[in-house]
Specification:
The chain is built from 4 helices and 7 strands. By secondary structure, it is α/β, with parallel strands linked by helices. The structure holds adenosine-5'-diphosphate and magnesium ion.
Length: 186
Amino acid sequence: MAAPEGPTPILLMPLLGTTQVGALPDFSRDRFYTAFVGTQSRTNELLREVTTHSAEETIAFGRALVDLLAPPKLVLLRGDLGAGKTTLVKGIASAFEAAAEEDVTSPTFTLIHEYRGPRANLYHIDLYRIDTPRELDTLALDDLRSDDSILLVEWGEKFPRFVRERDVEIALEHEGENGRRIRIRS
Ligand code: ADP
Ligand code: MG
């Protein structure tokens, strides 16, 4: 997708300063919000951008996304293998009280994991092994969409339909071994 025109988003504050040993940054604070990108259309507006430096920080960041991901949502999780998509879901699922972090595992072979919480039902979906629209149809993902559901889809960008229909896109990129740049677009 073309980069949005207009001013480049500027981080309001340095993202992660010196953190105490054992202390995680508080991603719920406003200082982690990026400036809005002017009057873009709904798609591709950069909402947040952050760099995490460990899996724990990515989980903490996922936990801070509860309000942004209030159901119903179709969320695309983009990034290479090992980028941290599943790790991020650990934080999201635990914040929604739908699953403990350690119970969130990759649905690479199972394709769909369902986590039911009091405020939302989360569906963590991995389309890495799904190649054709016909295979996709067999998953009947549309049946999972409802007012209280959040679909978190890894490799959903393989299918243009999801790129069009998604509410939120979260892209993760490696920055060195343990660094991950995470960008959220609406
Ligand atoms: P994906 O689902 O994108 O394939 P996973 O979340 O399954 O990726 O795996 C990410 C791996 O990278 C895990 O082993 C995790 O511990 C490691 N890791 C190292 N640094 C980070 C970080 N900053 N954020 C997320 N994961 C990280
Ligand atoms: Mg994964």
